[in-house]
Amino acid sequence: MVVKSKEGSNYCNTQADSRRDVSVQRASISTSVTKASMPNALTENPFASTHSLDANPFDDPSDPSPAHPDDRLEELNRRERELQAREQELNKKAEHIRVHGRNNFPPFFPLIFHSIQDEIPEASRPLITRIFQLWLLLLATLVVNLLACIFILIGGSSDGGRDVGASAVYLPVIGLLSFLTWYRPIYNAYMKEQSLYYYFFFFFCGWHLLFSVYAIIGVPSTGLAGLINTIQMYSRGSIVAGVLGTIASVGWILQGLGVGFYYRQVGTSTSHSPDHSHVCHQIWTHHTAAGHSVAQVRIHLCLCHYPAPLTFS
In whole angstroms, what is the distance from residue 38 CA to residue 28 CA? Predict the structure, then answer.
């Protein structure tokens, strides 16, 4: 027996409603085009009075001239093109769902569904968007770090081999673990408002901040092109390795400071003033105000191990 989830059914219903709307709008446009292309003699009411007394005699007699039929047709054609583009987008989404389901991330091999616009409450979207951007910065830093370690090896460093090996391991391992252990938990925390995800984020993001400090230092043979490795490359005259090490060091510093900042604060945009001022709240304050506690974590863990029995009414 195949059981469809409620979320998947709602998504499919939304797609069907969108297609139905497109069909209705297209039928409406076709009718409008037909009417616009008909002569006035066929569209005007032959029994209409040309001397109606319903008009206000005190109105300004200079009425605006009606729109030209060509302008009307151009507007209808534009709407038809927009509907065609929308239909193509719906067909593309339907094909993606047929092949991968709702999964859309990562783009080159979709494994999970990730959509801040669709799953995160509006007030929390700026925060999650910036944390996601910091995670992307971490990935870019890992790539530059690997390139820097390759040029450190070319520059003649005795620890270059170990640096290249370790940096090659860091790229997939740190990239994947950072997504699963602190980015995805804070994403799920704001999407589902469950205590367990908040504590996952607090714990693993704290370890990530410590690793970022370690990476900024850049001890030789650790696979991290931080400050020490970069200074050594400049002193040896390896300019390319030094420049790449500088970029990697800046990347480690920026993503470390950014993650540390959002580890403590939430930026929510408010529209109460013309400049859309930003109000900062601590994540811990948000987590406490929502009523999350260690007791709730225990309850969630118990529910995972001992799910409630199914009831039929």
Answer: 16
